[in-house]
Amino acid sequence: MIGLQKGDEVISINETPVRDVIDYQMNIFEPFIHLRVERSGGVLEFDIKKDENEDLGVVFEEIRYRHCGSKCPFCFIDQNPEGLRKTLYFHDEDYRLSFLHGSYFTLNNTGRKDLQRIVAQRLSPLYISVHALDREVRNFLFGIKRDDKLLEKMRFLVENNIELHTQIVLCPGINDKDILHDTIHGLEKLYPGVRSIAVIPVGLTKHRKGLVQFQPVTKEYAEKLIPEIHKVQREYVRQYGERFVYLSDEWYFKAGRRLPSLKYYDDFFQLENGVGLTRLFLKDIKRQKSVFKRPLPSPKRVHILTGTLAYPVLVEHLVPFLEQAESITVKITGIVNEFYGPSIDVSGLLSGSDFIRAINEDDGESDLFLLPPNCLNFDGLTLDDETLDSMMRKTGRRLMQYKGDFEEVRKAVANAECRSMKKT
């Protein structure tokens, strides 16, 4: 213990200014540390000897992230209903958030000093929203009127060995067809600095009053896009040995097509964009195939809750996997999203109210409800601030979130009883 207190502000480490937790992390792993801290208007100094890779255990307040300078007409934040927690309305745009958590930013408000810091501190990889390289289309999609010099900034970063992963939110009739191919090939010129592109479908909620109208992604549209992108990928495989551009899982679900094999996804560069996430989930099932071969002490009924998009895949793969144990009966519900509207069909955007509604419509015989892995944030909250505990209190039923370990699911199923909780 060196005597730091809550509220202390770290000024510098070994005479290097500390602006945020990234500066701290970059400078703390030295055997000798001279630490300057501001407390109650005064400055304290500490000389610390420690193991070279030892952290001091300092916990920082959350970074005050920058506000986005773009006004994207398809921005999901602007499609939220009223009455949610304030953080869901904040338009963040910060390279530090991208480095720390893999979130996407646009480079629009990233200036020369920011770029120099990224290079100096090797903040790599970073994740960039591109959407289009055509100037007119790009300005429309980002709601800007200036040239944001995207390619110039990206070129500076890759020439200084910063790895970039990019995304294109595809809006039918706007940045598809020739615009899409020009964007892909323009980014390919920066390969391997630009290591990957994810193409994801635009998401349109029912809360778009006053916003520009977009065409939704339909089954027919997805059916046409998939072979178009596969053709591009085959050329990149011949050139580079990997596909470079990847379609998110949603495209295959929407088209009613089977997912590609594990090999298709190369090094799974774009998991946060749902590129290959389902295939890895199916790999988990195969890897843990013996878990449910062992019988349970007594018959149980499990009710799986998911979005309508992934419903067919779970019916095909997860239900028979769980029912290997003859004492388990599985029911599965693809929940229609009433919170955002039925066009939002992914499980990660289901709300607590959606889950509660589906649970209350159950016949009362289910011992355990199994929720998807991506329906809660890091604080354990749904989009409308429900927790597992609050949903259990409101429904009187047993709930569990799947987190990648089917052995835990098996234990929860074995210990659950449908009548073990009274409705409140």
Write the layout of secondary structure elements.
Layout: E1 9-13, E2 16-17, H1 21-27, E3 32-39, E4 42-49, H2 95-101, H3 112-120, E5 126-129, H4 135-142, H5 150-159, E6 164-170, H6 177-188, E7 194-201, H7 219-240, E8 245-247, H8 249-255, H9 277-287, E9 300-307, H10 311-322, E10 328-335, H11 352-360, E11 368-371, H12 388-395, E12 399-401, H13 406-415
Parallel strand pairs: 5-6, 6-7, 7-8, 9-10, 9-11, 11-12
Antiparallel strand pairs: 1-2, 1-3, 3-4
Could you characterize what this model shows?
The chain folds into 3 domains: 9-49, no CATH class; 76-275, pyruvate-formate lyase- activating enzyme, CATH 3.80.30; 288-415, 3-Layer(aba) Sandwich (Rossmann fold). The protein has helices at 21-27, 95-101, 112-120, 135-142, 150-159, 177-188, 219-240, 249-255, 277-287, 311-322, 352-360, 388-395, 406-415, and strands at residues 9-13, 16-17, 32-39, 42-49, 126-129, 164-170, 194-201, 245-247, 300-307, 328-335, 368-371, 399-401. A 4-stranded antiparallel beta sheet has the order 2-1-3-4, covered by helices on one side. The protein has a 4-stranded parallel beta sheet with strand order 5-6-7-8. With 424 residues, the chain is α/β, with parallel strands linked by helices. The protein is globular and about 65 Å long. It has 13 helices and 12 strands.
